[in-house]
Amino acid sequence: MENEEYNPVDPIYYKYKGVDLLTTDLGNDKISYDNIYICSYDVNVEGKYPFLRFLLSKPSLNTELSFPQLYLLQDLTSTELIEYAKIYLCGLLMLKDFEIFNKAVEFKGYFECNNDLYLFFDITLCVLKVNDIYKTNNIWLTLVDEIVNYKNICNIPIDYFVVNFLTTNEHFCFLVDEKDKNYEIPIVCYVNKPENLLNFTFIFGEPKTDKNGLLGPFYYFKDFNTAFKNNGIYNSNNECTNNECTNNEVLLNNCNTKYGIVRFAVFLGSIKFIENDTNDDVDESEISIERLQDASLDQNMERLTRRISDRDGKWGQEYDSAYLGYVELDNGTIIEEPVLVVKEYKQQIPLSYHFVDNKTLHKNSNEYSIM
Questions:
Q1: Pairing with 370, which of 192, 246, 354, 357 sits 20 to 30 Å away (CA)?
Q2: Phi, psi values for residue 200, rounded to 5°
Q3: SS3 category, 83
Q4: Would you say 189 and 262 are in contact if contact means Cβ atoms under 8 Å apart?
Q5: What is d(CA 126, CA 4) in angstroms, rounded to the nearest whole number?
Q6: Helix (H, G, I), strand (E, B) or coil at 114
């Protein structure tokens, strides 16, 4: 990681809701607590709304992600404990200049829970760059959605006590605006890309699709499992498309074809759920009619999907996003590739990119792994 100078541009007002629960007056002996944790967070303001990310770490490859933990051999004063935590954080983040870090990081207060002590630090001004491409990385900036709802990040498990802490103390999940109203919490989404487009997409985001997009010319995202299994090395039947290793298990397990996924924070806003209800309108868009006359396309599927397609994107007149889940078509076929579509570019914020481990594509989805 590296430290960079902070240059705010058009700052937006926000307040961390959890600050109201913190105290700077700590009476107990620090060494009497069962555990002492560092809760560091930053606030990303690059998207439609500001949002939180928590710094989680793991000491080794096979351990779960958790809040960094301090171990005391003797009691410390509050000032000494805060200084010790800052030094620990600086080392964990592998920063070279402690003085620069010390000026940027801000101690927000203490929180006591079940005889555990939590030290909250705002590291937003540090503008940290986390080298989180590979699963061996020991530190991750993690979304609230990944902690509370998924309990993992890219299938790397998060310790249950972290999940339970934020679930039990929900104030620590939210930022609020000038009217003390909660900002929307973004959800985690993914897109799959070949190696040569991973970094480009990470920097510039996912581009708008063309007029053939099932739900119109907008921005399309997937969940982790769908993005992972649909990388270019495999087709829809989970068969390798690399001619050199087709039907050859040895070559397949050592396939050098590289694909990956880009991880995003996505704001939903108001959302329309696509259901293929018998009362839903049939897509009468010009592009839909043209596709029905295109012999190169599966005409049966084109007809079956006309109640879920909206190639003119009319849903965008009333909603900010649309979700197509596991929908059953009229012939009983289940669409098993959920997709989320958002209307505006600012609803997406790239977070990281990762190479997929091809060897895990044969396994159950809970065993899918990045490299």
A1: 246
A2: -60, -45
A3: helix
A4: no
A5: 7
A6: coil
3-state helix/strand/coil string of 123-163:
CHHHCCCCCCCCCCCCEEEEEHHHHHHHCEECCEEECHHHH
266-323 per-position pLDDT tens digit: 999 999 999 888 888 888 899 898 898 888 988 988 888 899 999 999 999 999 999 9
Q: Which CATH number fits domain 15-176: 3.30.1490, 3.90.79, 3.40.50, 2.40.50?
A: 3.90.79
Give the Cα separation of 76 and 153 in Å (integer). 34
Pseudo-torsion of CA 289, 293, 299, 304, nearest 10°?
10
Which residues belong to CATH 3.90.228 in the chain?
Answer: 187-367
DSSP string, 20-70: GG-BS---S-GGGSSEEEEEEEEEE-SSSS-EEEEEEE-SSTTSPBB--EE
Q: Which of 3, 171, 27 is nearest to 94 (CA)?
A: 3
Is residue 194 a contact partner of residue 201, using CB atoms and an 8 Å limit? no
Cα torsion through 82, 83, 88, 91, rounded to 10: 140
* Angle 220-288-335 from CA coordinates, rounded to 5°: 50
Mean pLDDT lowest among 4-8, 53-57, 329-333, 350-354: 4-8
Judged by DSSP in three states, 107 sits in strand
Pairing of strands 69-70, 51-57: unpaired
End-to-end CA distance of the chain: 19
State the pLDDT confidence band at 6, using cuts at 50, 70 and 90: very low
Q: Label each residue of 257-285 as H, E or C.
A: CCEEEEEEEECCCCEEEECCCCCCCCCCC
Residue 256 one-letter amino acid: N
- State the residue for tokens 């339970």: 164
Provide the pairing of β-strand 321-324 with 271-274: parallel
**What residue ranges of the chain are covered by domains with CATH 3.90.79?**
15-176
| 3.90.228, 3.10.100, 3.30.230, 3.30.200: CATH of 187-367 | 3.90.228
Separation between Cα atoms, residue 342 and residue 269, nearest integer Å: 9
